[in-house]
Design a protein that fits this description.
Order of helices and strands: EEEEEEEEEEEEEE
Distance between the termini: 66 Å
Strand order of the largest sheet: 3-1-5-6
Number of strands: 14
Mean pLDDT: 76
Number of helices: 0
Strand content: 35-45%
Shape: rod-shaped
Largest sheet: 4 strands, antiparallel
Length: 192
């Protein structure tokens, strides 16, 4: 709770500032001559975002705004703990599990699971029996939720007897200046 020690000469407001957009003040307290000594509860909440910043401590500063010289420029700082539940990752929304061995084309569609702090590049590597159109796609800090696709096609292996199923690999590698995303790898298998 928040309370004043002495009767203020004028109406006072309390402003809260945090370096973090995820912290929001729910109730802005006001002290006046009729209730100057009544503690007021200040509610704060953490606003969910889609950025993976990890658990952290955030300094929150509250300052009194008044013309009363007794309270002018009075500030206090406390620490709020933000438990971040967003995880950086690559979500595969669609991928073939089988491709006919005749040049059939299908898509591997992906999106990011959280908002990155820097550009994220996803590179696609395929084994010998597969071909790929674009080898990499990029996600920015604003289009991270947009579905993007790699076009994959099979290559007919004339040396392989008909009817044999071969398991081929598709590997998606993530690189970024955002350490939460950098180094993520996803392996998919396709039967041809």
């Amino acid at each position: 709770g928040l309370h004043l020690d002495l009767l203020p000469a004028q109406l006072q407001f309390v402003h809260f500032d945090a370096d973090e957009k995820q912290i929001q003040v729910m109730v802005k307290p006001c002290a006046h001559a009729l209730a100057w000594n009544v503690p007021q509860r200040v509610g704060m909440t953490v606003v969910d975002d889609e950025r993976s910043l990890g658990d952290r401590q955030v300094a929150v500063v509250h300052r009194l705004v008044t013309e009363d010289p007794m309270y002018a420029c009075e500030t206090h700082t406390f620490v709020a703990v933000v438990a971040d539940d967003d995880e950086a990752g690559l979500r595969v929304l669609a991928a073939p599990s089988k491709l006919p061995a005749s040049g059939y084309v299908d898509a591997v569609s992906v999106t990011l699971t959280a908002q990155p702090s820097a550009e994220v590049v996803v590179s696609c590597q395929v084994s010998n029996m597969l071909r790929i159109g674009e080898r990499s796609i990029a996600f920015s800090t604003t289009d991270y939720a947009t579905v993007k696709s790699f076009m994959i096609s099979s290559v007919q292996d004339l040396a392989s007897p008909r009817g044999d199923i071969e398991r081929e690999e598709i590997i998606l590698l993530v690189s970024s200046d955002d350490p939460a995303f950098d180094g993520i790898a996803v392996q998919l298998n396709v039967d041809i």
